[in-house]
Design brief:
- This protein is α+β, with helices and mostly antiparallel strands and about 270 residues long.
- It contains eight helices and six strands.
- A four-stranded antiparallel beta sheet has the order 2-1-4-3. Strands 5-6 form a two-stranded antiparallel sheet.
- α4 packs across α7.
């Protein structure tokens, strides 16, 4: 018998059987990278879910909705995806990828000495802003975003894990992650409520994960360097709100604004 003719179907059968094994790891299924190595310094799925749930349970000034959260490493590789509801349909399905976009954005536009939250980017990308057009760069990799079995969304083996998601999001919910040595490890993104509540939840999630040793930012508050900035006003006769600092974000509710000013100070 021709060995090649025998080996090809045998190999195909072996691969099929392997893919059905319950313990088949995300690192193999999503073969972009070695996930265990790429994400070794970052929280795992269980840690993200616990911190996200604790943050969501507080008053955040939004609609009290369940949330999606994503963590990426410094290379933009998705390390963990989680949600707070009873199942994947308990929070907006579209917010899964948005949370990943936010994590990617906060990581992609933060530096070892300067953290930019996604909330800080809102005004800068408006027409006439210093970063106008940024939101159209670095598009989401739709293969990474939508591949795999939806039943695994938000689980330890979410199909996004191990992929480079890409994407740019320019409203509240994404924050860079810095460890106690001041090293920039990646970012967390949160989505599922108003953008202002998303920011508050993301901030509290990062604080619980003990990854808020933020070196500096543009907020003007040294104790919260990459906090959301509420300084947009509408000048008479001008249809678009203007941020005094250039880093402002629209206000969603008085409660969310008040809470943002009372969020835990970053660690030093």
């Amino acid at each position: 018998m021709n060995k090649r003719r025998f080996l090809k179907p045998a190999l195909a059968l072996a691969v099929t059987l392997l893919l059905t094994l319950p313990g088949y790891t995300q690192a193999v299924l999503n073969s972009d990278v070695d996930v265990s190595a790429a994400c070794r310094e970052l929280p795992n799925h269980a840690q993200l879910q616990s911190a996200l749930s604790a943050a969501r349970a507080q008053n955040n000034g939004g609609f009290n909705l369940d949330m999606w959260g994503t963590i990426v490493n410094r290379d933009g590789v998705v390390c963990a995806v989680a949600f707070t509801g009873t199942n994947r349909g308990s929070q907006w399905p579209g917010s899964r990828v948005i949370s990943a976009q936010k994590a990617n954005t906060a990581n992609a536009f933060s530096l070892p000495a300067l953290s930019l939250s996604t909330a800080n980017l809102y005004s800068a990308v408006q027409p006439g802003g210093s970063l106008f057009g940024l939101q159209a760069s670095n598009p989401v990799d739709t293969h990474v975003a939508y591949r795999g079995e939806p039943a695994n969304y938000g689980q330890w083996n979410d199909p996004m894990v191990g992929g480079r998601i890409g994407g740019v999001n320019v409203f509240g919910g994404g924050l860079a992650l810095y460890n106690a040595k001041g090293q920039l490890l990646g970012a967390v993104g949160v989505s599922g409520d108003s953008s202002c509540a998303d920011h508050n939840i993301s901030w509290r999630t990062r604080h619980t994960l003990n990854l808020d040793f933020v070196p500096g930012g543009v907020s003007g508050d040294a104790t919260r360097p990459d906090n959301i900035v509420y300084d947009i006003t509408n000048p008479t006769g001008f249809p678009i709100g203007v941020s005094a600092s250039g880093w402002g974000h629209p206000a969603c509710s008085p409660t969310a604004t008040t809470i943002a000013g009372q969020l835990p100070a970053v660690q030093k």
